[in-house]
Protein 1
Amino acid sequence: MEEFEEARLTNKVAAFKACAASIRSAKDGKSAIINEEKEAACTWIGAPSPINPMVPGLPKNLRPKALDTILDMMISEDAQIMLTQTIIKRDSLNESEAVDETLNEIDKAKETQIQQKGQYSRRYDYAAEDVERYSRQSYDGDHKTFRHSLVARIDGATRKEVNTLTSMLNFNLNGQNILTEQPFGGHLRSIKAGLPTNEIIEETFTDVQGNTVAMLWPARNPIQLMSRKGVLLGFHSDARTPLFADFDSDDFKSKHFAVFGGSGTGKTTAELYIDYNAAATNCDFIHLSPKEDMGTSHLNAIKALNGQLLKIGDGTEYDPNPWMVHFDPETMGESAAARRYAYRRTQVSLKKNIEFLIGSNFSTPMRAAFIATAKATYLKTGLVDKKGNPLNIHKWKDGKNWPSYGDWRKTCQEWLRDESKKSKWPSIQALLDNTEEMEEGNAWDWMDNHNTFDASGRFITIDVSGLEDGVKEAVTILLMDIINMRLKTPSPEAYRKKRRTILTLDEGAALLSTPNQAKYIVKLIREARSGKMSVCFDNQDLDGAASILPVLKANTDFILLMCNMTMENVEEFGKEFYFTGKDKARLMESGKGKYLLLRRGQKIPGEVVLTNKMKGIFFGETNQESRAGVCISDNYEIDSRVIWIRDKGLIASNWITKLDDYEIEGFTTTDATSVMGGSGKFPVWLADGILNESGLIDGETEDHWVTCYLAAGELCMAGYTDVKVHNWGGQKVEDMPDITCISPSGERIWIEYEHPGSHSIGKIESKKQKQAPYCDVWICLCQKANYPQVKAAVGKPFCVMRGVNFARFIEKHGIKKRVDISSGSEQSGARTASVQYDTYQEVPIDA
């Protein structure tokens, strides 16, 4: 009882401390003190500039991930961020009056400038055009206008933690052209406005449209992401961020996925898109298509990749022989045990093939008779003995030496004349009766062949559209068996070196419709996983889909549900998945190539975005013009401050303000580690041909060159000037660092980047001694891997790790510039005083 009472009192104390029982302003006005235990500082986000009301607090093209940027600022366990969003809907009359008032203010500002300077800024015309356009959209009912306020409150145990988070928040939002302001002496008022009271802060309000309100709604789910690299599946429909599937990552356990979509949803194009992108990431792909009209898309894609198109069932050399043991010494090894395994595995595959061909008529006695006659047929070839040991292995690779269904039928007829086999006669006769279609001139006669089926190419499309139902499924499973045996690896080392294969089974989900087939398919996809193959199950028939979903959920990492569904389709999937009203609306949304990606309880809206090159290959479309022999494509816009780096040969995804086609002419997409922090890597584009034969760029390694220009780009974006990168060979002497620039406060900053293992401690120290006297601030940028060595060489104050520490450094020395572009608040001005005396002797980045 005593322990229970103690726990109750502890909970009461915790609950009390969580409440703002006592709030007072700090003496310097830079924060508020809550319960005499923690400090809190507020930031007004998106409020219009008090210096120039024509400068909007929020950019016209606000990125959907702006809210995620705020929430991702949590880097301390002892601090937290709370957001208060206030929205007031304008009625029609009030909205009209607000538009008229804004237009009058713009006219007055124009007149004032004309009187003072004889001319006015064209920005006023642009602002007026935006106001008129928004007003028209509201009148037409496309949008509604709201008065909007967003206040961030940062609580921390110490002033240092609060200041650190506040600085990072301002830096990241200002980089997205979102204005911020710290209310010097007004934190208490801001906190009160964030509590459930009627008090608001008029200065924080700005007029926005409904979509902006939704983007900044603090209770919405964050923008969901898949992997940061791997096979591109499409783009997030809201955030326009790429959705990758990294099948080699431990986050993907089964390595397989499924696609559901009816006719006309863009399902086939989506699968072809995934195949094409898999090839771009050095994967192989095999696509089994059952459609009678594959169209030119498959044919053109295979042709563009120099792949193979194999049509099954036409009586050509492409027809596989189910009896041939497909053995590849390079992938399976040279041992007799490996060949014995391949032979026995082929026997299992053959047994399943005949079982699926005959269907429900296949009985247990027939199975026993088939096993016996098949073994006898194999023994006639002299390629195996009674125990399955390999013989004459030099003949194994030629299909002519292996038996066929025709040879097996001859064995069956021989046994019918052998009195010693009389007990099996009824079953053998039943087998012959059920395989009459294999006789010459009948529908299955193509199965009687001695071909050497070659499925060893990197990119293969197999057309099984000419096969009848039932046979199509049996052949698909047979092909999976053959492919699995081809991909088997003899050792972990061989597994690591081999490329991943994406096998797309068009209409493959139908294979799970019967328990017998489903059980064998599950076995096959587990084998596929061990052979570094990822299987895509496709299903067009949405009716009754719920019956196969449990098997797919247990054996896939994610499922794509193509949009354009009917309510009945949605309800069918709703038997297995929980859908909100928003999810249902998404699934019934019209348009091709749109989907809802289901993974680990997340529902991510995505869509296929074809590049101009893909449109040209798949559909023969083109959206480019030629000027003087140069292919021009206006498919992206980049921040003007980093155009010079683009011209050097690098584009970072966070510098792009508009991207309609992720393939940029003259550039190849890759990934790089961000110099500003964040998990994993992010997309960048390198100019074609920029890497020489030795893998160097301007005499530097790719990591060194890319890191230096990424850092230079971030400096430019933060308002630094005279930013230059000095490549090896261009530096001439060691006295010149990798990067030089001028900070917004006028400091001459020199930055040297050290890649792990590139120089000794003594060499790094020598660089500092030679370069530091010529600048105000000198630092050595490094990675986590070589941080101890660099710190030992130059000292902790001069050592800045790539990532969050470098972001803090840029923010710290760019703080004066940020004051100029935000609101000129007294608090921001006061904070500059703490950094204006920095010299090259010390750079305390954590201050």
Protein 2
Amino acid sequence: MSEKKLKLDIPLVLPEIEDEHDRCLDTLGKELMLHKGIFQAHVKEGTSPQLCIHYDPNLITLKELETLVRQSGSEFTRRYRHERIPFDSHVSADAAGVLTETLYKLPGMLHASINPAAGLAFVAYDTSRLKKTDIEYQMRKLGFEPLTHVKTASHKSAGEHGHDHGSAPGFLPHALRENWTYLLVGLAGLCFLSGWIGQSFFGLHEDQTRILYMIAYLAGGYDIATHAIPALFRGKFDTDILMLAAALGAALLGEWAEGAFLLFLFSLGHAGEHYALDRARNAVNALAKLMPDTARTRRGGEIVEIPVDELRIGDLVLVPPGDRLPVDGEVSKGRSAVDQSPITGESIPVDKQPGDEVFAGSINIEGALDIKVTRLSRDNTLHRIMEMVANAQSQHSPTQQFTRRFTAWFVPAILILVALTIIMPPLLGWMDWQRSFYTGMLLLVAASPCALAIGTPAAVLAGIAQAARNGVLIKGGVHLENLGAIRVMAFDKTGTLTEGSFQITDMLPMPGSTLEELLATAAAVEQQSNHPIARAVVDKAKELELSLPPAGSMENLAGRGILSMIDAQPVLVGSLHLFRDTDWYQIDPSFEQQISTLEAEGKTTMAVSKGKRILGILAVADSPRPGIKETLQQLRNLGIEKLIMLTGDNRKVAEQIARLTGVTEVQAELMPEDKLLFIDRLKEAHGKVAMTGDGVNDAPALATATVGIAMGGAGTAVALETADVALMADDLGKLPFAVGLSRASRRIIAQNLGISLGVILFLLIAALGQGISLSSTVIFHEGSTIIVVLNALRLLRYRYAIHEDKASEASRCP
């Protein structure tokens, strides 16, 4: 039996799949193996994940296999859906875990993940076995109300339509449903206080106070019970069940006042927690409000206003001064200053003129602009940012993964401890049944891990939101935490540390050649390349109005230069190493000396040959980005110990740029594969490593690094797709902000973890020692939950001021 392999990039087969670990890929692989001649189909991980298929060419040809895979992928995409379902988020983190387990048990469900902090459910399912309405039905049964009108790129936001009314009955007036949660909390508090004050100070009869306490029970426990009790019937225990059980236990013991106070405090804590989380969610949802719903365009000689979704590429959109731009496009007519800060984070408006690129969500400040649409609304930069911010919330950070593992064994252990605490002491004669039952109720409340479950997701949500508001896209909690732990950062040179705008500085023809022949030959070949150096050569030829000879197709000689044909003769343009490696050239010492002299001046050199004749040398120079030295110093102030430049350029040029920028180490004359190997060595030596580049030429290095950071995300789809972190403006100045924010996020996540575990430990010890009351336990429990959420919200006020040291930077998160 002969066996061959076919490797296909996953996006080509399944465009909707964004994660190579997606379970849908396993399902597709199993379906492919049902076909004769296919032995195995699996995901091959790497810088560019691929679907690897092992097959017998005697049973299925390569062409048949490729057709089958693409057809299967198309059918698979239609059959298997990935959905992001927003829901009212007035639920606990434990309830989210119950919903996750419930959804996983539905027939046809492939993946389910719930983010209670973001109010989003992420699901992947087989549409032939399961419908979205069935998923939403299960969510409603557990108290998660799906929101059907949430703005993406062109729909009204949930805050404007489909507002969340929690568990309010539908027959109530809108005003009551709007404030249902707060009305219940107020009623519970009022009834509890009335009963307690009446009994304590005015001699109110016990039966009357019990009625008031019962009303407090119903009001305080209503929202909790709407999802906790259905979960209980499915055999699922969560934190809210523990609270209801504790309140019921207090009532059985005759402690009605204590039980009413417990439920009042718990409902008050829930309301405060969700109010605080809404602030973080609103920071993310505010991105959607940047997108205008309509645009003015010309139709049949008239100016009409139409929905943005109806615009097509090439349409002209009219934007008067003061309006937000509804589309990504190119200025066709007019000049104006445009505020791009909502997209790129740039604080200063950018002057725009015909031919310049503009982004949806930006604000036209001065003059009227005619804009030619270059991207549909579903593909524009703002829409992509919103999609990626939403997707980022489905990824669990390392700390979130730890808390999930911790609670997975902690909660069952506590339930066992509670059972033993209730049963064993009376049997052993240590205390009576009433006291042991009360102690068990204390343990139930004390060990409830609400703060532990919500503290990290809240911090991740706030951190990602604040980054997006400032022109930095962080694509998940794992990248937020990893960036905050970085101590070593590598940079590509051209276009990252430097402007990437080269100018020809020297043209040195060899004897027997002319300047015109030298430049025209190089430009004829280089015009097929989009490299910045190639553009400089072509621009110089155009400036001198040279006539370029026709050249054959160009072959890229990675890391050394390019090869083409002119007049049936080979043409080489590249480094001195390229010519040393070519047998038919004899390198004159004076030629090498000229190159060494130019490189000592910080210039990049290219030798040019035609046939067996060297025509001469071209030298170009690039300059460091303005303010780059200050930016790198800020990174060092933040604790980045090594700033390493990686470049394929010669060492003398690299060292000259290093002196001007302030990098601490230079790795020059690297082939593309050398950069990958060096990143791997850095990871072995230092652990987590970041790589910063433009996301195009250095995409493999970005993928290999722990955190890949790409610049110019607003302008290039490649940068958005390849990087873990994208600086939306083509400006490294936002990098210290991104690193500082990530470090602040890590600190707050660690603080929240310490607060949560510390309070649980304290309450457990106090409960076992019977040194705390049930009401005090609830105060500590709910207080810790609100504290960790408020602590996380500090990230929404994070700022990074220039020239700050570590100590003052830490104070930027008030």
Protein 3
Amino acid sequence: MAPSWLRNLRLRQFFDQSHESPRSQATAYVTALIATAFGLLLRYWLAPHIGERGLYSTFLPSVIFAAYFGGMWPGLLVTFLCALLGHFLLDDFLTESLDGAVGETVALVLFVITGVFISAMSEALHRAQRRLLAEARLRADEALRQTEERFRYLVTNSSDVISVFDAEGNILYQTPSVERVLGIAADEFIGKNIYRDAIIHPDDLPRKREFFERLLASPLELIKVECRLRTASGSWRSAEAIGQNLLADATVAGIVANYRDVTERVAFATELLHAKETAEQANRAKGEFLANVSHEIRTPMNAIIGMTELTLDTRLEPNQKQYLETVKSSADNLLVIINDLLDFSKIEAGKVQLEQVAFSLRSMIDETIRALAVRADRKGLPLVASVDADVPDKLVGDVGRLRQVVINLVGNAIKFTERGEVAVGVELAGDDEASSDTRRIRFTVTDTGIGIPSEKLAAIFLPFEQEDTSTTRKYGGTGLGLTIAAQLVELMGGYISVESVAGAGSSFAFTASLLIDASEPATVELPTPDARTLPGASAAAQRSLKILVAEDNEFNSQLMEQLLSQRGHVVTLARNGREALTLASNGAFDLLLLDLHMPELDGFQVVAAIRTAEAGTKRRLPIFALTARSGTEDRDRCLAAGMDGFLTKPIRGEALNAALASFMSTNTIAAAASPGVEQKKTPPAVAGDSLLDLVVISASCGGEPAILERMKVVFAEQLPALWTSVRVAFQAGDAAALREAAHKLSGMLSAFSSIAGGVATAIEEHAARNELTPCGPLMDRMESLCERLMREVEAIDATQLLD
């Protein structure tokens, strides 16, 4: 590298020569002469106007112009030419009025000095400009040289090999680094063709040829390939090539390929794969051993459990029975652990094969929940399940494994929940991209139990993991259940997830891809998206519903709640019409049982408001009227008002079950009374002169002694107050209040006595017509009937009466 002073001198000389070339000098002097002529003409033209004033100053623009464009010497030339010409040609013409030549001489000298100064300054500016340009060019050349040296160094010492090919595959350039990688000089590659290059492994030639053809077909696209290259010693190195077609780029005009030596990486990957296969083989051997041991343990365990159960069926002493129950409980727990270990080992060993059998999804859910209901009931936990209406029922898959996952999740939910509820939901997955014969279904199990800390969520699906060791001590288990569930879900083409807050409960969800049973069309058994399935329900109500009961009569509302809850339905009570309207508008109910005579808003006003709000929407709440009237005109009025059917009071368990069964099977509500025909009341079965109607009582409590006992308590508590309200309204002559009070009294009395209920209904009807006079004799009779019925109801033995 040359010294800086020498480099600067050369560069300055270059620019000086470039600026002072003959052509540039000639142009400068011609410009100076033109400027001189222009100055003389300008002074001559201005002479009549300015006279002797500014004798030489009018030449200064010419001097400045020449000095700016030409530098010092053109500026001096114009200065002296203008001075001489001005002195000899214009002196006499412009200085006639002067007393002497003193003024002209002074002006001349000042002009010459000024011109020299201007020329010198212009020359200095020109030289500074040329200096700056020279330094800029010097820096640019130096930067370019350094960049070239750096690039050359990188190319020479790079671990990668860069090749440039023409369109026919001939090598145009090869980086020197190829000698370090392969031991072959770069010059030996120039001119060789990629299609016939012996350096490529024979097995990789088709792949390399495809690589080059793809480059030709896809300009600018980066394309990758792996191949083996032969070294000078004859060994093979693995290389990863990334190429790009830059034939259209005039700077490169070739196909560039970058080769990276990946021999060590390929060797490591091969070793890693071998180690993985070895580990998997050892794991399978372990799994097979564990499976064999588990099977060997299960055989004597089955005998222990079976013989223990047989012994428990014999007559035993209390302490003997307690000992054997402890043995059976421990054996059952041990069998669960063995089953978990067996399933886990089978999955790890890759021996689990999913079956493909047709099954009913809703039946599976119903049977599974039914089997777990006893466990939930022992802890006082409601166990509810819902299946969306759009979920197909007839499916094909491994129902046993699907049930196993559901049982595991629901069982865990019950185990870790002390209060609240456990809910199971089934719906179509929102990300369903399945074909027409496959559905992705999401199962959700939600509880209000102990929850899981956020830092533990990622580990609960790992083998032998639980929330902490205290969980194992308190609740038991191996920690394999969720692991098995997650692996089974994965086998079914789904995934499992969990959301949980410590102390607030958990929500586990998993998806499964199941085929639709083509042999039988898929049917939807549930009428609404919120329909539920519960164990223990009768054939008349095998699905759990969310039912809103609007009944102002305390006795009737409690009776309805008892009857419906016992059949697995979720009941919400409304005490007046306005409350019923609010609940129906804000809640998602499957059915509304609506008393027609209620305070604030009656049943018909509630129906009108609900149907108005539903106008223009897809939702329609089924509404079932509760009324003591069973005539055709009453039924027609209910249907015309927008109701779907009605039940006559007193409400009988059989009629209620039949109506609900009809509702769930047809999505329509059948009236308990025969359509179009006035329902004939069953003749009361009276024991002697008793007011009790045994048929009515049995139907009202659904044949359940416990419900009848509750009915007796409520009857005794509320009858005096109801009768007092009737009497006060009659004495006050308030027909509206009398009708309301008699309606409530009729509802209660009709559950026990058709005679007493009929008298109360007659009072209600007269009051509705504002006929108070006929109510007098009825009131006297009603008082007597209430006193008698109170004694007879109190004396009822529920068990004997319903036996």
